[in-house]
């Protein structure tokens, strides 16, 4: 019964937020120029470079969530994906293709899982920020 009530309240709050103008689509269209800029900023010492600072410590652990640890290399991928998603690249396929272009290879299944995790975390973070702005 509690579960039903909780789901009903959640459904009402989501529909209320959907009517809010703050939930307008803020995604950006990934033009070739923007794509090359994002790749450039993701390379060494760019604004989106999360890999250079961890050189030599890629396999060290880093806490991502309570009781959830990953290697620093995987944490860099998670942070990079969250940053791209929160800045407007909302299409997960675009994020994957950007990563493949950046690394010069196909994305692995493990990396794909981390991209998916980060993508959902970023969207969840956005919804929470809108909910608390009210």
Structure, explained:
The protein has 134 residues and is mainly α. It has one domain (28-133). Helices cover 60% and strands 7% of the residues. It has a two-stranded antiparallel ribbon with strand order 1-2. Helix 2 packs across helix 4 (92-103). It is globular.
What layout of secondary structure does this protein have?
Blueprint: H1 2-18, H2 32-42, E1 61-65, E2 68-71, H3 72-86, H4 92-103, H5 109-133
Antiparallel strand pairs: 1-2
Helix pairs in contact: 2-4, 3-5
Give keywords.
5 helices; globular; two-stranded antiparallel sheet; 134 residues; mainly alpha
Name the poorly predicted regions: 6-13, 15-23
- Biggest β-sheet, characterized? 2 strands, antiparallel
Oligomer: single chain
- C-alpha-based Rg, rounded: 17 Å
Query: What's the SSE pattern?
Result: HHEEHHH
- What's the number of domains? 1
**In percent, how much strand structure appears in the residues?**
5-15%
- The N- and C-terminal alpha carbons lie at a distance of 28 Å
Q: What structural class do helix, strand and pairing data support?
A: mainly alpha
Large-scale geometry: globular
Mean pLDDT: 82
Could you tell me the number of beta strands? Answer: 2
What percent of the residues sit in helical stretches (DSSP H or I)? 55-70%
């Amino acid at each position: 019964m509690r579960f039903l009530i909780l789901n009903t309240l959640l459904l009402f709050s989501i529909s209320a937020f959907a009517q809010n103008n703050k939930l307008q689509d803020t995604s950006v269209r990934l033009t070739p120029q923007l794509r090359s800029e994002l790749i450039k900023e993701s390379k060494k010492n760019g604004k989106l470079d999360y890999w250079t600072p961890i050189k030599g410590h890629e396999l060290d652990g880093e806490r991502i969530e309570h009781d959830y640890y990953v290697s620093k290399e995987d944490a860099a991928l998670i942070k990079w994906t969250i940053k791209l998603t929160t800045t407007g690249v909302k299409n997960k396929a675009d994020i994957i293709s950007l990563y493949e272009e950046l690394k010069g290879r196909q994305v692995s299944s493990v990396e794909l899982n981390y991209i998916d995790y980060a993508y959902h975390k970023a969207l969840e973070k956005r919804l929470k920020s809108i909910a608390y702005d009210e």
